[in-house]
Fold alpha-1,2-Mannosidase.
Amino acid sequence: MLPRKSVKWVLLFVLIFASVFELSSSKADPHWAAKKRRMREKVRKMFYHAYDNYMSHAFPHDELKPLTKTFTDSLSELGNLKLEHLPNDYNGSALSLIESLSSLVVMGNNTEFERAVLWLSDNLKFDVDARINLFECNIRVLGGLVSAHMLATDSTSRLVKGAYKNQLRSLAEDLGKRFLPAFNTPTGLPYAWINLKYGVMENETTETSTSGCGSLILEMGALSRLTGDPRYESAALRALRKLWSMRSSLNLFGTTLDVVTGEWIEYSSGIGAGVDSFYEYLFKAHIIFGKEEFWRMFHSSYVAVQKYFRHGSWYHEADMRTGKATYWQLTSLQAFWPGLQASYKRHVLVGDIAAANSSHREFFYVWEKYGVIPERYLLDHQMLHPTEKYYPLRPELAESTFYLYQATKDPWYIEVGETIVNSLNAYTKVDGGFASIRDVTTMQLEDHQHSFFLAETCKYLFLLFDDSFLVDQNYIFTTEGHPLPVLSAWHDRLPEAYIPTNWSFVKKERQVRQASSMSLQVCPATTWNTGEHKGQWIESACHVPDVRSDHRCIANEDCGIDSTTCRRRSCSIAGFCGLWLFI
């Protein structure tokens, strides 16, 4: 009879082998290929139902109100500016059209993409007396314009020759210049609100969020690289470095701060609203610009998140000063995190596939429980937040599902995507588009089709079922779902350890399965793999090596963080580092 430990390893091998066999066989299974084609067309119809209704009833205003088939100019309304205070000739910023540009390309509609680009080139203006949110305008408008310009000028010749003369780049530069006054603060941290015509208004609030001042580097950095004007990247980088200097001794951040004094206002934070894209942009900036500084920031932050926020499959909020838990709640924005852990097609970004899969399944459990994912769910009471019961067509769960499928090719994620698509069609589709849900317990609808439904939700679902847009291409998607190509010319110094392994890249030939310390269960994390991935260095982002290579120690401070569990290792009585506290 086999010893108990041997039995456990045999069972583990059988499970792994069965999983690998299932993955490899399902990939060639005509059933899954047919399902993906069918679901792709279902998502395409969803997108055009939303897009065509916007163009018919709301264009050139910002967003569609699908129940009444009217419009809202949401960018100005985000600043609490009433429409009657806007100029008489103001017709909106065509926000939903800008947000749809890259989605049109992903779905292969170059004709409509060209029509939209040329209309924006001739009609879009930013010289308007409107108070806008810097963060939202950056990720939605500036990001949309920069991405569309790069798609319009790449080697695929999507536009008729001679029809496009870099007009979107000029519009993006004009908008970027209007952002710059927001950074004129003693700290370099930008104001959250700015008037497009007059700059920072008198008595403007000095409060902003961590995301608001720490998630500008991709769009503004790309603008600098495209125009040759370093001011945009320099402003965003100065703000990011200042924010980084404000971290606690635990490498944690708060949620809100004062841009003038540089003091924290809210010390509690997690991985959700107010902070989420800050973590996302640290890593993606490393990929786009090749700065090791961004990787070091991300690595330190990621380790802190795993240590102080993670509780099993969930992530609660904690006080940045003490690491003590503050709020035990799930927010819909947190659903991006598994995607960050497992992203990108050819190899994983962070590599914690097991952790990503575990969290993703919990989010999907909540989705199945309510039919969609509510804005806030109280983990300690296993109930909905009493006032935040809404679902505004958010994309984060679809985004993570797409990334996890690309990382694993597990067909279960195709089924998750099918469930999401069916729920959206069942509960949110109306004659005039797709409506947000006001209360997930009653499925009462709200008259708003957010632009990110076109920019992200439909795009990620489409890419889940058809990733042909990514074949032989390298892209990073911004937090608003706008693709930016990874260009070696943009790198200050190519990061040797991460090029091209963590680029967004799909090869036409048979795809090699993903590997990471977490998925392979190896420790120490940095090891030379001799199995299926022979000749490949494997490293987990949460791993912190022991001080000594022989793992000898005198105190706990000599021990690092384990790669497979992301737990702190401790020093044993015999003087060796290990997971002694968890045996």
Observations:
- DSSP finds 18 helices and 24 strands in the chain.
- The chain has a mean pLDDT of 84.
